[in-house]
Recover the amino acids of this structure.
């Protein structure tokens, strides 16, 4: 009998310790001793082939200047980063000390207590040099939770020589013109005039063009069912089925396919942001960089042209210990310094977030100059934490609408039903 | 189930044990089999930790409105308290009578997907096994060739298919060459479904074939000889010797096939991605999307869909088992 108990206890002990071993994997932010170099982990969400080399070079510079800090650079695909970070942070381990976060994710992260407020830390020492609107977007309930690293907006990118071949002299300024120009390009140059990436973020200009948005924060209303939104999406649906517009690609490779087609001159125009400029310049049609035309996105029937203002902040994870947080703040300050931003802008053709980084050398880049002009038409997003979550259900239904599985009305009212789960106190219309 | 097994397995015939109370019965069994109990303990503990705990937690979440926002967590100095509340069966009602038309389309597609995949893989697997069971030249070469899809890691297979099925991929060029036109395998809702079933067949047939082959080799050759002596045609031999002889193997294979296909996450997820192809998502990928594919993560609804999947499979398996037992009874 006693033997039995002993055996059972032993066996249980083995089992428990075995399962404990299994769960203690390598933690990115283990509480190491304060002495010696601190290793911080940075999740970079920039494009791993076109943009990452610039960031890696900056990381090496930072390590040289700060021998007491080592940076573990991890490239995380942008599409998975939000989920990965949320999962890691919710589990309490595996989250990085610093992450490059989309501006839209910041309010949600801050609301859940994942982020360190950066006011008064070395990270935000030069706060006054940044564009005030971008600092505003990195602020949640009065506290600064991120330092803007790059900013962006969407623009109409077009292939000047293909447009010229079709006899088009200036970029279209309305969706109707874009439709007519696409038909013309197809007719004269034999390639598609326009390709649309069927994702909710890229559909925003069609809502802004009718003077509406996904939500009306002041009026506490969801706008998907509004007449303006229905009109905007109807315009889009009409556009993607017009002659001369590339067949809608809703496959998992769609985004890459569109970029390849534009780069190789099989499509004359797309809606895209500055993060793809380097990639576009690699394309066969853009060996001569001046062949890339940049214009504000076309306007809708309300006569307004608008594109979402996006971009990325560097954020610090609240679960790291004090030594890691201090190192993270130092790192963020370095990566967002004027010198670093100038390097990033000249190498990657992305837009700096600081006014003092728009030097003559930076604005000489054709991509940056074009986007800087377009930035004026940018529409900042409302400061509610659920806003970027609305892109999910809107995107799913948008694909169904554009591929003809649902009518515009049905799709948008399905979106509304799902959006109400995120914003229960908003009226549906 | 593992915990319950020893109790069920207790010999029912012993009258004195049945009369004793449950507590003394356990004590007596412990005195007698303490070593077995000790040996089982680690398995029970590990299964309890790895299966039992998440399952209980999952069932619990289905009766709440938990999301990643309102479940308590502590990040460094920040402490977010639990603020989710019990909502009873509201999540189930919401999903089953959903005004957003999300559950039922996915449910029906899951049923069609499971039935067609299992039918095709089992019959193809059986056909190939019968072919390979004969003495043909280069038999081992054919066997190797047919097992190959199984030996390649699933994600490699599926990504290769994704490239081949793309709009300008190999499949479409072949179809174009024979004048069948250009199909949108990865974006048109109908052809997406066809593509999903085809790729799953490719992935699933080798296992079915191998298992069927094992079953075929267990059928004694004398039975075929006797049937031949009695003048049975090849079809009659297949119908009355092969099929009944395979039943112990094939019934288990069909059940396994149904459970695996019902929960086949890889094919759908890797072929189409989680977000852009809503109509081809089966229940498990839909549940994944509710959890990982959106923010805030919807724990309650994802768990509810998961529990619904589990319940459907448990109920089905029970009915299938009874039906099989009745079939066997009828045969004997």
């Amino acid at each position: 009998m006693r033997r039995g108990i002993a055996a059972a206890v032993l066996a249980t002990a083995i089992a428990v310790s075995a399962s404990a071993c299994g769960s203690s994997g390598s933690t990115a932010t283990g509480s190491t001793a304060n002495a010696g170099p601190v290793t911080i982990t940075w999740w970079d969400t920039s494009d791993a082939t076109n943009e990452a080399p610039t960031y890696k070079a900056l990381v090496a510079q930072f390590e040289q200047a700060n021998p007491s800090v080592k940076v573990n650079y991890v490239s995380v695909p942008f599409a998975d980063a939000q989920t990965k970070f949320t999962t890691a942070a919710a589990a309490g381990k595996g989250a990085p000390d610093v992450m490059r976060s989309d501006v839209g994710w910041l309010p949600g992260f801050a609301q859940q207590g994942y982020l360190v407020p950066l006011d008064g830390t070395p990270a935000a020492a030069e706060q006054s040099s940044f564009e005030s609107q971008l600092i505003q977007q990195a602020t949640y309930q009065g506290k600064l939770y991120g330092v803007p690293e790059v900013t962006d907006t969407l623009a109409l990118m077009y292939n000047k020589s293909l447009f010229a071949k079709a006899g088009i002299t200036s970029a279209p300024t309305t969706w109707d013109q874009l439709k007519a120009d696409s038909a013309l390009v197809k007719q004269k140059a034999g390639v598609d005039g326009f390709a649309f990436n069927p994702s909710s973020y890229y559909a925003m200009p069609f809502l802004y063009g009718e003077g509406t948005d996904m939500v009306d924060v002041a009026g506490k209303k969801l706008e998907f069912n509004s007449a303006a939104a229905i009109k905007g999406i109807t315009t889009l649906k009409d556009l993607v089925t017009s002659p001369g517009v590339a067949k809608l690609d809703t496959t998992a490779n769609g985004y890459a396919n569109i970029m390849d087609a534009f780069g190789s001159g099989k499509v004359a125009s797309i809606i895209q942001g500055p993060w793809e400029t380097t990639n576009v310049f690699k394309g066969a049609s853009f060996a001569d960089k001046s062949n890339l035309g940049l214009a504000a996105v076309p306007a809708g029937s309300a006569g307004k042209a608008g594109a979402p203002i996006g971009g990325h902040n560097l954020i610090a994870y609240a679960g790291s210990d004090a030594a890691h947080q201090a190192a993270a703040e130092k790192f963020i300050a370095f990566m967002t310094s004027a010198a670093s931003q100038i390097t990033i802008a000249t190498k990657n053709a992305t837009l700096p977030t600081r006014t003092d980084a728009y030097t003559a050398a930076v604005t000489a880049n054709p991509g940056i100059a074009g986007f800087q002009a377009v930035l004026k038409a940018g529409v900042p997003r409302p400061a509610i934490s659920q806003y970027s979550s609305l892109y999910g259900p809107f995107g799913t239904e948008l694909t169904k609408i554009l591929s003809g599985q649902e009518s515009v009305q049905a799709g948008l009212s399905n979106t509304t039903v799902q959006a109400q789960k995120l914003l229960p106190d908003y009226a549906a219309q | 189930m593992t915990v319950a097994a020893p109790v069920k397995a207790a010999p029912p015939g012993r009258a004195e044990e049945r009369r004793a109370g449950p507590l003394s019965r356990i004590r007596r069994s412990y005195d007698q089999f303490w070593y077995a109990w000790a040996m089982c303990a680690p398995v029970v503990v590990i299964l309890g930790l790895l299966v039992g705990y998440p399952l209980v937690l999952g069932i619990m979440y289905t009766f709440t409105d938990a999301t990643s926002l309102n479940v308590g967590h502590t990040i460094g100095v920040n402490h977010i308290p639990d603020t989710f509340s019990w909502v009873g069966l509201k999540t189930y009602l919401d999903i089953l009578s959903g005004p957003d038309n999300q559950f039922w389309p996915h449910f029906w597609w899951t049923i069609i997907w499971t039935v067609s995949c299992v039918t095709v893989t089992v019959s193809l697997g059986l056909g190939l096994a019968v072919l390979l069971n004969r003495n043909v030249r280069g038999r081992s070469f054919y066997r190797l060739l047919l097992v190959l899809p199984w030996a390649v890691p699933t994600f490699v297979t599926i990504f290769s298919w994704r490239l081949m099925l793309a709009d300008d991929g190999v499949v479409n060029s072949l179809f174009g060459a024979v004048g069948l036109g250009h199909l949108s395998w990865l974006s048109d809702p109908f052809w997406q479904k066809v593509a999903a079933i085809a790729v799953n067949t490719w992935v699933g047939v080798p296992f079915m074939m191998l298992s069927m082959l094992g079953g075929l080799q267990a059928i004694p050759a004398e039975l075929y000889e006797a049937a031949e002596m009695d003048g049975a045609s090849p079809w009659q031999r297949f119908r009355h010797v092969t099929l009944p002889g395979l039943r112990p193997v094939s019934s288990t294979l069909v059940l396994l096939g149904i459970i695996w296909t019902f929960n086949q996450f890889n094919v759908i997820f890797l072929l189409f991605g989680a977000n852009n192809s809503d109509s081809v998502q089966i229940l498990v990928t839909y549940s994944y999307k509710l959890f990982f594919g959106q923010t805030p993560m919807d724990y309650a609804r994802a768990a509810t869909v998961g529990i619904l999947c589990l319940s459907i499979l448990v109920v089905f398996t029970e009915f299938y088992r009874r039906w099989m037992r009745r079939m066997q009874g009828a045969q004997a």
